[in-house]
Amino acid sequence: MTRALFVVDVQNDFTERGALGVVGGDEVAQRITRFLGAHAVDYEIVVASRDWHDGDNDNGGHFAAGEPDFIDTWPAHCVAGTFGAEYDEGFDTSSITHHLKKGQGKPAYSLFEGVADDGTTAASLLERHGIIDIDVVGLATDYCVRASALDAIEHGRRVRIFTDLVAGVHPDSSQKALHEIAHAGAELIESGG
Ligand code: VGL
User: Fold this and answer.
1) How many CB atoms lie within 10 A of CB 39?
2) pLDDT-flagged residues of the chain (< 70)
3) Given the CA of residue 140, which atom of ligand 1 is nearest to it?
4) At CA 69, angle to CA 91 and CA 47, rounded to 5?
5) All structural domains of the chain
6) Which class for 22: exposed (0-12), middle (13-18), buried (19 or more C-beta within 10 A)?
7) Where are the alpha helices (DSSP H) in the chain?
8) Ligand 1 mean position, distance from CA 101 (Å)
9) Alpha-helix runs per DSSP H in 43-117
């Protein structure tokens, strides 16, 4: 078994009622839980990332000083240790094998920028476990899912996106991101439950 699942940023702040809630986020969290219930055993490792920003600074301009543009600047979100930074309540994390945190003091869209509490990175996990295939799900399609999928392709892995297990900030840029990811070589498919 040489397949990994990446679950990107399924956190309270990215789901409905969160500081940066995306439409359909709660539904995606629940669908990922159902998917894992049936399919976690198909994966050698299941890696989940969390945005984990500082609360006492703007994280390298990632938190807007005034009005966010929702492209490069954002409302404060996923501050380490707060409810918003916790995994979404609908996401059952019991089958996650590795937990990565990213964005401490800076913008970090890709799961590859994350580190586990013991310093492990996604790149080292892929090597250690001989991972060839990576499936990517989570939030948000047009930002962290996009960056994580493109990085996975960049790392030479075969990548699939489950289109029913992602949700995005903007419909247009989410469509554009999916086209871009497909063009870069990923397969876009439905999870099949
Ligand atoms: C994300 C916007 C800002 C994401 C993170 O997880 O996709 N989006 N920070």
Assistant:
1) 17
2) 193
3) 7
4) 25
5) 3-189 (3.40.50.850)
6) buried
7) 25-39, 122-128, 146-154, 171-183
8) 13
9) none
Which candidate, 30, 53, 31, places its Cα nearest to that of 104? Answer: 53
Task: Kindly give, in sequence order, each residue whose CB lies less than 8 Å from that of residue 54, ignoring residues fewer than 6 positions away.
Answer: 79, 80, 104, 105
pLDDT value of position 193: 56
- Order of all β-strands in the sheet with 187-189: 98-102, 45-51, 3-8, 133-139, 158-167, 187-189
**Distance from the alpha carbon of residue 7 to the mean position of ligand 1, in angstroms:** 13
pLDDT of residue 192: 87
Please name which of 130, 132, 102, 136 lies closest in space to residue 117, comparing C-alpha atoms: 102
Structure token pair of residue 141: 């399609």
Residue in this structure with the two tokens 């030479």, named with its chain if needed: 156
Structure tokens at 110: 């890709």
Kindly list the protein residues whose Cβ atom lies closer than 6 A to any atom of ligand 1.
9, 14, 20, 51, 74, 139-140, 143-144
**Protein residue with least CA distance to atom 6, ligand 1:** 144
* 59 CB-near residues (< 8 Å, 6+ apart): 53, 103, 105, 106, 107
What pLDDT, on a 0 to 100 scale, did the predictor assign at position 118? 97
User: How many Cα atoms occupy the beta-carbon half-sphere of 86 within 13 Å?
Assistant: 8
Report how far ligand 1's centroid is from the alpha carbon of 161 (Å): 17
